[in-house]
Amino acid sequence: MEVTQKLYSVKLTYEELKILDGKVNEEAQKIIEIAKMEAGFGFELHVMNEILAKAVETGRLTWRLKQIRSCPYCDKKRTYHTYTRSTPYHSKGDLNYNRPYYYGGIAFNEGFFTIKGVGDMCIECCKLHHVIERLVDYIWDHDLKIEVQENDHRPTKYLKDSVYVCQECGTETAESKMVWKPAVFQGWYPAACPHCGSEKVEKTEKAEFILNPELLPEVELIRKDLGFNEHTKGTIRFFKNRSMPYVFTVLADSPFGEGTIIRFHTEKKQYTNGSWSDETVFDRVAKILEAAGYERKEFLI
Ligand SMILES: [Zn+2]
Ligand SMILES: [Zn+2]
């Protein structure tokens, strides 16, 4: 008869976990490693350490506003709306158990499945403890490879760049360096292998991190140049592609319509002219790009 060992579940403090460090099975050691990481972050609000550990694991820090039932950091307890007038069954002011009371809250790093009414804290506590600002600053100060969602405090330093594998030639390529093609309805998608051209490509679990293109000196220079140039004021727009955050377009915006003057790809270090001719603007931007090592191409993607 095969004898299996009985397994016990237990809750331990960090100090107790440290005693077991290196002496337990793989699964338990994983929990100890996470605990050590969280303790290393050192935020006094434990949930901030947990949020950051999760962000390190997934390579992303995200959050969204969410209705929550209670907040663990203040006096917002689970409750219900009250009856506003008396009925044969209830008195005015009694709790109406059919109508749960929700508070404005925030949930970090939510996955695909979410639980109604559950979040990390209320908006007031998030603001009071500067949770987002301190998490974003920590990620910057320690150069953690995490893509932070857009926010008013600081831009993300890195973007997560998924890796694809080609079924034909076996080459692995980051999404930003793939051959992109227009999607059926709108936008673009990473369609083919840049090495052999095969469209048999598959997204892997792996990812690389690229510097946020917005922070590149050439992008900052172009923004500045276009912004302070009397000639371009109000007639030129500069924007980043939504699905390809490394593709920028300089657009002429006139009463007669709009047209692309120049487009460039910060990861492929390429630029190309658009259909709209404005030599002054084109030359200014091209000069900055050439100085940063970009190559002119007939097409970008
Ligand atoms: Zn709260
Ligand atoms: Zn290939």
Name the poorly predicted regions.
Answer: none
| N-to-C SSE string, H for helix and E for strand | HHHEEEEEEHHEEEEEEHEEEEHE
The number of domains is 3
Topology, number of strands:
17
The percent of residues in helical segments reads: 25-40%
Question: Mean of the pLDDT scores?
Answer: 92
Kindly provide the radius of gyration, computed on alpha-carbon positions and rounded to a whole number of angstroms: 26 Å
Number of helices: 7
Distance linking N and C termini: 64 Å
The profile of the biggest β sheet is:
5 strands, mixed
Main structural class: alpha+beta
Give the overall shape, derived from the CA principal axes: extended
Query: What share of residues are in beta strands?
Result: 25-35%
**Small ligands present:** zinc ion
Which sequence of strands runs across the widest sheet? Answer: 13-14-15-16-17
Produce the secondary structure layout.
Blueprint: H1 14-20, H2 26-41, H3 46-58, E1 60-61, E2 63-68, E3 80-82, E4 95-100, E5 103-108, E6 121-122, H4 123-128, H5 131-141, E7 147-148, E8 158-166, E9 172-174, E10 179-182, E11 188-192, E12 201-211, H6 217-228, E13 236-240, E14 247-254, E15 257-265, E16 270-273, H7 279-291, E17 295-296
Parallel strand pairs: 1-7, 16-17
Antiparallel strand pairs: 2-5, 3-4, 5-6, 8-9, 8-12, 10-11, 13-14, 14-15, 15-16
Helix pairs in contact: 1-2, 2-3, 6-7
The structure holds zinc ion (2 copies).
The site of one zinc ion (ZN) has 8 residues, from loops.
